[in-house]
Write a structure and sequence with these properties.
- The structure is a homodimer.
- In chain A, helix 6 packs across helix 7 and helix 28 packs antiparallel against helix 30.
- The first copy, chain A, is built from 32 helices and 13 strands.
- In chain A, the strands form 4 sheets. In chain A, strands 1, 2, 3, 5, 6 and 9 form a 6-stranded mixed sheet that branches. In chain A, strands 4-8-7 form a 3-stranded antiparallel sheet, with no helix packed on it.
- Chain A is of the alpha+beta class.
- Chain A folds into 3 domains: 122 residues, no CATH class; 190 residues, Butyryl-CoA Dehydrogenase, subunit A, domain 2; 331 residues, Butyryl-CoA Dehydrogenase, subunit A, domain 3, CATH 1.20.140.10.
- In chain A, a hairpin with an 8-residue loop joins strand 12 and strand 13.
- Chain A is elongated, with a radius of gyration of 35 Å.
- The interface between A and B is large, with 133 and 133 residues.
Chain lengths: 768, 768
Amino acid sequence: MTTTADGSGALSFDDPQLLAFLPMLYVAWADGGLDEAELRTICAQTAALLEQECGTALGRWVDPERPPGAADLQRMLAAIRAAAGDLSKTERLSLAELGIEVARAHGVEPGPHEVAALASLESALGVVGSEAARELLSTTRPGLAASPPAETFQPERMNELLEPDHRDLRFRLRAFLSRPEFAYDYELPRDNYRERVFEWTRALAAEGFGALSFPERYGGAGDVGAFVAAFETLGFHDLSLMVKFGVQFGLFGGSIEQLGTAKHHRRYLRDLGSLELPGCFAMTETGHGSNVADLETVARFDQATRAFEIETPTDYARKDYIGNAAAHARLATVFAQLEIEGQRYGVHAFLVPIRGLDGETLPNVRIADCGPKLGLEGVDNGRLWFDRVRIPYDNLLDSFGSILEDGSYSSPIASPSKRFFTMLGTLIGGRVSIALAAHSVARSALTIAIRYGASRRQFGPSGEAETVVLDYRTHKRRLMPRLATTYALNFALRELAADYAAPPGGDRRELEARAAGLKAFSTWHATDTVQTARECCGGQGYLVVNRLATLKADSDVFTTFEGDNTVLLQLLAKALLTGYRRQFSEMNLLRLARYLAGELATRVTELNPVVTHATDDDHLLDPDFQIGALRWREDQLLAALARRLKRRIDRGMETFDAIIDCQDHMVTTAHAHVERQIVESFEKAIEKAPAGPERDALSRLRSLFALHRIEADRGWFQEQGYLAGSKAKAVRKLVNKLCDRVRPDALPLVDAFGIPDELLAAPIAVAE
Amino acid sequence: MTTTADGSGALSFDDPQLLAFLPMLYVAWADGGLDEAELRTICAQTAALLEQECGTALGRWVDPERPPGAADLQRMLAAIRAAAGDLSKTERLSLAELGIEVARAHGVEPGPHEVAALASLESALGVVGSEAARELLSTTRPGLAASPPAETFQPERMNELLEPDHRDLRFRLRAFLSRPEFAYDYELPRDNYRERVFEWTRALAAEGFGALSFPERYGGAGDVGAFVAAFETLGFHDLSLMVKFGVQFGLFGGSIEQLGTAKHHRRYLRDLGSLELPGCFAMTETGHGSNVADLETVARFDQATRAFEIETPTDYARKDYIGNAAAHARLATVFAQLEIEGQRYGVHAFLVPIRGLDGETLPNVRIADCGPKLGLEGVDNGRLWFDRVRIPYDNLLDSFGSILEDGSYSSPIASPSKRFFTMLGTLIGGRVSIALAAHSVARSALTIAIRYGASRRQFGPSGEAETVVLDYRTHKRRLMPRLATTYALNFALRELAADYAAPPGGDRRELEARAAGLKAFSTWHATDTVQTARECCGGQGYLVVNRLATLKADSDVFTTFEGDNTVLLQLLAKALLTGYRRQFSEMNLLRLARYLAGELATRVTELNPVVTHATDDDHLLDPDFQIGALRWREDQLLAALARRLKRRIDRGMETFDAIIDCQDHMVTTAHAHVERQIVESFEKAIEKAPAGPERDALSRLRSLFALHRIEADRGWFQEQGYLAGSKAKAVRKLVNKLCDRVRPDALPLVDAFGIPDELLAAPIAVAE
């Protein structure tokens, strides 16, 4: 026997007995090399069955010393295909059966020995014959169509449930932003980008969007809810524009409206709303991000001239990250420690002019650019230093504190800490707004990733079209629970926005705590969702043109600004511990912790062993089980937290140290509270929705969200004995099942977000 | 009684009995408002104790109808402070005791009734007296110093353990990159940035770093390990440079070296190593990212002219994301389906010239820029189309397939699938390299976040310096486990790099699977760590100058390129199922799954109820427990996976569908495998390390990593009955404790990474 250059033996198909084995031999070799032992076994087994020696024609084909060459394999395949001929339509033909057909095509009828040998060999090889045969013949397989996009409900009707308020305004703003002049330009240099964003902001102001929350006599609509809805809608467009808009009208405008009095409103609100007067909100200092009470900028009052001197005492006390400051603001709301006659009265807000009409920096003010940032490059963040800048008395925003004619301090709120927290409470608008903006970001990212996932194909069964990637379980597992979370969150955010927009009055502490918790949850959810969407879109996700890159970079800081998320969750935990009745002072916290440790311990109910073991779908899909589980967790965590704090303090630990020691527990408790709240809001909305396919879809999403949260924390639930191991497994399985059930709704569910193609813009997600 | 403008009653301190109560009254009011019921209770209680009516001077001070004004509170505080005088040094004075001192300072000695009333009132108020008093007097508190940076071990010695190989090279390259010409410039426009990166690459090539892996006769050092170490070190610098370097010398150079033969080496390697010949690696197509076998570019062989015609049949088949293609490459390694006489022979690699010496695009080639990307803007990614481009026969990289004189195809590997996977196996270098680069990214991010966290202060106990944020439990919880993970991963990566660099020979399938798993783990860990570091640095983290923004944007695509992580983990799972003995073909997988379902079921050991309940530290800190738990999980998951696949296939499900159905299980299994592997490598390295403080620190890190992984998956461990609830809780507690124990080591642990300040560059992490 000769060996050709490529190592193949000079084999021929002249032995008729060989024909029936061709398909199997081809698979054995082409499949990537059986090891020697296996080949010898097969050879021996086949030979025995055929009552022949290994040295026959067939035997030579399975000799590991003489593997067939590439050309041999090609010839084998050609012979099989030629012989199969019309058989290509035959489905589920085993390799053995195919071999018999090949032999017959050559006029050879295999005997019973050979047929038995074929079957035995196929079994020894362990391949699924029909699949292998189909690959050889390139036929297509029956069944398993891609999940059909089930248009079971109307996206428009779903959109009405998702965004029930300010619908006209939302549509008007979406249409406005869809104009060609608002098209994205990813290549603008930073300075031009900033100017573009400034022009866009001016265009929004000209249409009256900026002043929506201001009183009508100053050009506004007196509708706080409308302003929030506008901000949320801007979250579907360029986030630099949204932030610029929020700084000017929400933070700067809001500070004058809420911390100032009538004289300030008369003087500033109209120009501010039209962007005639660009301003900024200078609270944060380099040294003090979250700890506003300890900021160091000073406002010294001089009774002789009735003026303040604003001073930045150290470089650490410069105002930092101030949006609008680096390029455009003329006036700044500056937070500083009020000092009268050497006596400090806490943080107050002052209006400090920083630029003249020509844009020149005013004397004794220093402004620096923060430089390039991860994202939001259309926003001019800057730093401010004040070198004893003098401002008249009227520049004190005096609704919570003023200085009488005699130079003495006066405030409607005597307690300095209460005054401080009341003033900070005006920040709630920023937190509500960012929570909603993050929601818009998550919706954009999911729309892009789900539309792409439903069209992109990769890999697939042999001889078939590749599979739609959204039909892969891992892909579903990554996107469906996040879609459900986004839906769930929607309703808690709607409630928050409505309560925030309701006429003030009554106790706002619960609202502040709720805003803190939902801001943290929503922004972390957005960061996580955008990241997942980016990864699910692979290389396409990395290209700026597909929007995910920009969404990721721009929204990343949401978890930090308007209150660092970890700090906000601690605020919420303290509010829970004190039953919202207190400001978040540590001493009060402690007092209440002692009380709660007693009270809550009795509130937590006994576990029912039947329920901890129940694993049927009806039970697990019941909102009562879902809400009950999340509420039980919250109560347990809160009671345990109170007990732990109390124990530490009773042992003589300082309150601050006790809190640090239990800090992770606080954050976990706050998280549990937010999740329970979200499911409850969701279920409330579902109960109010008219019966129909929309409501059914929402119920599935509620179950997916709730069970996915329980699944994620099933370690804890088992530790506490709330879930038996079998039940935890059942939850896990049901989450998979729900992912499958939500999948066919995925496209209409993201269509229901109603994001215009012009705003979405990603070529991978928008029909050209 | 009159009321002043600010609402304060005209109260005076003329009742001597009032003096002792001043501190407590101040706290009650200043603290932010007791509710009415509480005030009335306090009033009644106090009055009863003092045997007086509520209408007395004292009673008026707690009248909720007449809260004191801001000025009153200021006067109270001034009076207390004046009276306290020298007492400011007194620590741990209760409010009652302080009150007595205030009274005494005014010459009044409280009687026993009053003393009792004071104590009772303090208790009713529920405040911690000493803390409140300290706040009033602004004294500082004893104890609780910030965790001292314990220089218990030498960072240099630790660095020797972390990076035992190629130390001279690493130091040389770090020093080279620290030169001023390698300083970062965050403001370069994209085109200039690309040129800068190209110049940097040329400078590296001139120093011999590019050719390290090539044979010496072509200007190299013949040291694959050195090349990987250089790439890893570049991961501390600009990642665009690292990727550009990797594309030119690793992918393009590697393809010629490994897929080509001597004639190609002679002709190209020297110019390639000096960057005289810039090239690119054109594998990925728009329509086919991960599914390389099905890419559509065709290379048609014409026997008459012994030439190939390269063609892009559809727009979907354009080469995409190709690094170096948009601006610099002159030659491309193009992967295409080889076609001879209408017969396909699978994917092969061809050298296709795309640009002339002057940079002009060659005829019939189309090149487009991919446009702006999330990151890596210094790399010129492009798209390539070929319109029947003719190349001579010698441009086929023919080490795995050639065409004989007679026009017939020949290959040393007959099986097409084996040939394909062998060829793909040459990609392993990219995966090993990216795993190490991601490791460098995580080390940079942790160094920045930990150094900043150890210097940044926010909030703190009353009247004291603010607390170092790294001493907060939540901060420790976020950074210490990630630091431990980074350390743990280091040793598995060292082993991987060493095995990869070892002379080829033997079965590389285990190595390929290991590289796939560690690449996925390391890049996800980097993405997660950079994100966490960014959030831990707050606003500072968002500024580009602090490097985290760039690290985040640049490294994000690591989870996608060189193999999508989810796809890679499935490859690993298939390798585990087939015991590495097979190529990852589905038919083989199935055969082995049947076998394993039987074998593994018997391998999983029985649970010992004593062990499942053991919660003592000695047991939990024992590497045998940690590794044992992770190994048990891996074995269980693998056996269950094999059983699930078998069940589905036995029921008649198609293999492909069975795999999709169990896909999340596959990914989980692969993850479990990688984690077990990492802990084992870590423990092996610890055992080899000399006894001393470095080894002790490493042991703590191993425990933290292992227990943190067990904690994260305690839901599963409990479901399986491996951990009792009490043991799961004990693990959770111990993770917290280990975070505390690792915290003092945090600074030297990141110093041990040895990243030069010039490369780290972040002002928040580098002494000026």
